[in-house]
Amino acid sequence: MLACDGLWDVMPSEEAINLIREIYASGETNSLLIAEEMIDIALDKGSKDNISAVVVKLPGASFGPVEGGGVTRRRQVRDAARAAQQAQNGNYYNGNGAGDDSGDRVVSDE
After folding, report:
1. Of all helices (H) and strands (E), which one includes residue 108?
2. What is the enclosing helix (H) or strand (E) of 54?
3. How many domains, the chain?
4. Residue 107 is assigned to a structural domain of this protein
5. What is the spatial distance between Cα 104 and Cα 100, in angstroms, rounded to a whole number?
6. How many CB atoms are closer than 10 A to CB 43?
7. Helix or strand run (H / E) with residue 2
8. Mean pLDDT value of segment 40-55
9. Number of other residues whose CB lies within 10 A of the CB of residue 23
10. Which of 37, 56, 90, 110 is deepest in the core (most CB within 10 A)?
11. Domain range for 65
12. Lowest-pLDDT range of 32-36, 65-69, 104-108
């Protein structure tokens, strides 16, 4: 994985590699989706810097079963957790990247 300091500011290299291994083990084979997931994780961890990431599959990389769901499943789980948290806080979150027509990811009912 190659990434800029926006990722490394919030995630040690060992954690990043372990996450990539976990994503591979869940059946994901698309390097672009894995890089996007790493950027999403850095944003969730509060990175405020520019974030770029490239994941390269080397020969011999092993992948888990496709049924594991890969990045798509991780996003579904994360969106469900966010929706539950927002509902608990009285906010609206529909899980598709927009709370309403404003383009905001989360919109408060206040």
Report:
1. strand 107-108
2. strand 53-54
3. 1
4. no
5. 7
6. 14
7. strand 2-3
8. 94
9. 24
10. 37
11. 2-96
12. 104-108
Polymer length of the chain: 110
Rounded to whole angstroms, the Cα distance separating 109 from 89 reads 9
Are 27 and 63 contacting, i.e. CB atoms less than 8 angstroms apart? yes
Domain annotation covers residue 37: yes
| Contact status, residue 38 vs residue 19, Cβ threshold 8 Å | yes
CA dihedral angle for residue 109, residue 91, residue 93, residue 7, rounded to 10 degrees: 120
In a domain, residue 110? The reply is no
Find out whether 63 and 103 touch, Cβ atoms under 8 Å: no
SS3 39: helix
Structure tokens given for 51: 């974030």
Answer yes or no: is pLDDT of 109 > 90: no
* Residue 55, number of CB atoms within 10 A of its CB: 21
15: left (phi over 0), alpha (psi -120 to 50) or beta: alpha
User: How many of the other CB atoms lie within 10 Å of CB of 13?
Assistant: 11
- Confidence grade of residue 62 (pLDDT, cut at 50, 70, 90): confident
